[in-house]
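Ex. 9. Protein: Acyl-CoA dehydrogenase family protein.
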Amino acid sequence: MDARFTAEQDEIRRTLRELLHKRCGPQEVRAAVDTPAGHDPALWTALAEQLGLPGLALPESCGGAGCSVTELALACEETGRVLAPTPLLATSVLAAPLILRLGTPAQRAALLPRITAGTLTAALAVPGPALTTALALTGGNDGAWAGGGRAGGVQARRAEGVWRLYGQVDQVLDGHRAGLLVVAAHTGGFARSRTLLFLVTGDAEGVVRTRRTALDATRPQGLVQLRNVRAELLGGDEGDGEGTEVLGALAGTGDAAAAVLACEAVGAADRALELTVEYVKQRRQFGRAVGSFQAVKHRLADVYVEVQAARSAACYAAWAAAGHGGRAGGLALAQALQALRLAAGEAVQLHGGIGFTWEHEAHLYFKRAAGDELLFGPVHRLRAHAARTAGLFERREVAV
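Predicted structure tokens for Acyl-CoA dehydrogenase family protein:
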């Protein structure tokens, strides 16, 4: 593995950082999350038209840039630094790869070029607080997490050649405004119980969507209710099998998404550390800068080591997810979330009284750390599943 960034990767990072520095400062972030959409449509258009960010990891045949997950992850490190509230995670990291992998040629041709152009946003709707389960990050995804029987969730029935969905999805990232919903639904009854993915347009008859109040306002979530909604099976009716292909696609998407999220968390942690270092150099107490005290230096040194370790793990996971073998996304995400939690916590404390105020941006990073762990963790479960998958805790008989 060559750990050096390519010239193209460096250019992506530099260009994106410059654009976000100009258009996504703390005040712009606060203003964007207070809008009904939860993000700045003008910024999203700029990211799509100037940088092609929504289609960065999509093939050129679909209008994308033809890059890999590695480039997308590195780009998300920059969006994570400023906590940019964009539909990038929901659209390009979660929904688009599933359409690319499972969709029919007609579905890919109809949807992916629009996603690449930034004119169509998408969201993955997974019933209940089961996103990490569906993506196989904290356990196997072969259970009844999508519903079934009296388990709630979303049910799918086919009558007269038409699929109909009914049910409710409580927490959908960008689900309140996405133009396309990729809905995981349970079908087949008890005998042929399986989970399939369906395409539903956001304005379809019977779809009721409400924005929810979230701990992390930079990751807006929506409540999606499906009331006998007509849907299209992702992959076409010929893909209506036992659902094993769907579960595999979700697991593969989950590993790549975890690598991207890890890089994003590293970017946020790094920025929180930068803000804290800048502040303790300026803040004076007892006639000297706060940062000159040994105890403060030790605390920040611990954060720095944690962030650098997380960056190394995230970069390796992104490299592996780009087709180099192995799945390290979950473990890298655990490392990155832990680093972000530490960096954000120290940022709040070492900023002193101002760190607890609404006006300062430290609390935004703290909420991102807590919110991401609730959505994609917790850390100990990510690590436990990675250990089980690697067989670290298997009993082995030793011949005497």
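Check your answer against this statement. The radius of gyration is 22 Å.
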